[in-house]
Amino acid sequence: MSSSPAASARQPGATPPSAARQLTRALAAQTAAEARLTLRRGESVLLTLAIPVGLLVFFSVVHVLPLPAGVRRPVQFLAPGILALAVMSTAMVSLGIATGFERQYLVLKRLGSTPLGRPTLLAAKTLAVLAVEVLQVAVLSGVALALGWRPGGDPAAALGAVLLATAAFSGIGLTMAGTLRAEVTLAAANGLYLILLLVGGMVFPLSHLPGALADVARALPSAALSGALHASLTGGGPGGGVESWAVLAGWAVLAPVVAAFTFRWE
Amino acid sequence: MPAIEVEGLTVRYGDLVAVDRLDLRAEAGRILALLGPNGAGKTSTVETLEGYRRRAGGKVAVLGLDPARDHAALTRRVGVMLQRGGVYPGMGPAEALSLWAAFYPRPLDPAGLLERVGLSAVTRTPWRRLSGGEQQRLSLALALVGRPEVVFLDEPTAGVDVKGRQVIRSVIAELRDEGVCVVLTTHQLEEVERLADRVVIVDRGRVVADGTPAELVTRGAGRSIRFGAPAGIDVAGLAARLGAPVNEVDPGEYEVGAAASPATVAALTAWLAERDLPLADLRAGRERLEDVFLRLTATGGAGDGGQR
């Protein structure tokens, strides 16, 4: 029995890596695994890449949607809005659904018995979301540029808005994942995605919504993100300004805090 | 120092006392089987040792550390196999094992471990498409990849086919030989008789029996003699000869309510010989582990509660 390969491998081997190196190794492996799993799930690729690209191309080519005053080409309005949609799909829907099922399948419980640790797991999930967003921005920007998009304004501000929104949407996604059954999270995240898309100023301007609904929409993170991106990427475009940033910052603090206090690991 | 030492452990869920002043010891290089009916407090006990549950009272030490306070330090030295699940559904054995290996400072070689648990043919098959037995064997491998000193296995062979069970049992036996402390919860009494060095039977949150499998089956010694013979023999006549009650518990299966003394056994066989009756089998002084288990955990069996 003791001649089995694993038994002989049990002898003391090389000196163990330092704690910092070990942590980096675990974080890198977990981040890569999270990103791989996201890109391997068909429904996740549909949601994070296919639908945004489809909406961008379709409504850029087929002129059926209203545009804000002063904008002539649809892609000029659509590109920032679809980038906002992409961030929401990854940080809220994809992360929320995946985490909900990991909780239901006891993956989170089991990881809790390994040296990975919850802070490292959360860091890995964050990094994986950011990696997928980088991919989304590259693909969507490429498609938009090919469709004649001419970005302007302040890319640094846009980056800031994306990071705040990532925190906000991740908080919402993880709040659902940590409190609801996985199937309910699946339905709720997709439903919320549709609602926030429709009232998010992503494919058509908020000004075309009824007044009261537009006021509610302005307090939601999707409209705040698309507003901030429109403002920063088209140089003072529609719906930007201080209000969007304030709403975005508020959600970026509130949602993760709620997630942290309500999340149940099993 | 024992690998695991538990004194007076109490676990509560609200008003419900799941574990009630339980004592337990497990040694390195030994397999401890934790038995008990569903709801007896096995899982609550094990999950407290694993660091998942907070205890309401008592002293608990795993490798000399407190699982609640020193959880991070213990995760490097303890392997846990959950009763079910615990793996990303879209991940295959090789990928899962490589990921888990990255969490530990001195992991085992994933390829060697996959071979050891017999998963070399399905290294890339996603978890959700593996059979129940393959899932359990991967789950076992994940518990071992970090070279743990203590391993908790929750029903490792539940839903596993015969061949898979053999693999899992031989790996568990190897762990013992390597000096690992194995804590096994199971419903398979045959597995316990074959594997366990020590058995602890828990019922209603308390230990009702604790000993080696041999000790437990001989503890009921002297209570009765059981034997097999043709159905319908003259039990009244035999009872008169032995001076003790004789019952035909099943057709052809008899129980004599007397101590298994050599004299009684001799009288019994002599009585059968005079009538030229064949003796199918004779068990004097030993119960099967299943009988012990059922006797100790029977509803209302509180009278056995003091037996240690």
Protein described:
The complex is a heterodimer of chains A (about 270) and B (about 300). Chain A has one domain. Chain A is globular. In chain A, helix 7 runs antiparallel to helix 10 and helix 10 crosses helix 11 (about 240-260). The model of chain A is unreliable at about 1-15 (pLDDT under 50). In chain A, about 45% of the residues are buried. Helices cover about 75% and strands about 0% of the residues of chain A. Chain A has 11 helices and no strands. Chain B folds into 2 domains: about 5-220, Rossmann fold; about 220-285, Alpha-Beta Plaits, CATH 3.30.70. Chain B is built from 11 helices and 13 strands. In chain B, strands 5-6-7-3-8-9 form a 6-stranded mixed beta sheet, with helices on both faces. Chain B has a 4-stranded antiparallel beta sheet with strand order 11-12-10-13, covered by helices on one side. The two termini of chain B are about 20 Å apart. The chains are: A mainly alpha (about 270), B alpha/beta (about 300). At the A-B interface, helix 1, helix 2 and helix 5 of A face strand 5, helix 3, helix 4 and helix 6 of B.
What's the shape of chain B?
elongated
Fraction of helical residues of chain A:
over 70%
Which residue ranges of chain A are poorly predicted, with pLDDT under 50 across at least 5 consecutive positions? 1-13
From the 3D structure, determine the CATH topology of the largest domain in chain B.
Rossmann fold
**Fraction of residues in β-strands of chain B:** 15-25%
Secondary structure tally, helices of chain A = 11
| Helix content estimate of chain B | 25-40%
User: Could you tell me which chain pair has the largest interface and how many residues each side has?
Assistant: A-B, 36 and 42 residues
The helix-and-strand class of chain A reads mainly alpha
Strand content of chain A: under 5%
Shape, principal axes of CA atoms of chain A:
globular
